[in-house]
Design a protein that fits this description.
Layout: H1 2-8, H2 39-60, H3 68-89, H4 97-112, H5 128-149, H6 152-158, H7 168-214, H8 216-219, H9 224-263
Length: 267
Amino acid sequence: MDELILAVEECDYVNEVVCKPANVLELFEFPPLFDSINRTVFLIGLAAIIVLAVVYVTYRKPRLVPTKFQAAVEALVGFVKDEIAVGIIGPEGARYAPYLLSLFLFILVGNLFEVTPLINFPITSRMAIPGFLAFLTYVIFLVAGIRKQGFGYFKDIAWPPGVPVAMKPLVGIIELFSILFVRPFSLAVRLFANMVAGHVMLSILLASGVIFIGAVGEIGLRSTIGVAWLGMGLLIYVFEIIVSVLQAYIFTLLSAVYIQTSVNPEH
């Protein structure tokens, strides 16, 4: 929260209704913690450690009668495996379940950093993170397609079977461009854009509320505007928790769908 207040403390809250930083990038940039490790890199490592710790603690010595924590994690693992991996991809989806589970948990933790006190920064709001995760999915569904169909996989994309001959060139170009370029790009941008929008809105509303309320001695009753901004910020705070979970689910679900189209092209 200190970073949020610093980002807006020089705003003209006497004349401005909403107090916002002159440069929105201030909400995303942090000084390095060490010589070559900035806060984003540190949080990426922290997210990975949290995911490993949760899985390790759950399955290191599983109890016959599970604790609430173990039951919750097992339910989540079962959901990703049964409903997403196997449910979307089919019987072959079990081999992709570890990847999809790792993807879901990492994105979920990274998203929830947005609403974590003293962090307030979703690592998925940096395009490099969703871009890299989308690239991993891209490589996996291409490799899956080649393993399943050989290099005829690209032939079937460029010259799709079951399509009238006159339409095949146009449909082939559209499919080739969609599968090889649009899919990974849209997968990354969808997660990135949602987390950036939520982070900026939440940061500005909460910081504006704090600054206006703190300026009651200078602007009098106008400081009550801060109460409204703070209230809206708290509502957005709850909403962003839902968005964080939903975006992790959507990214994982679409990854499974893309893999499924490579493994089972007939569908």
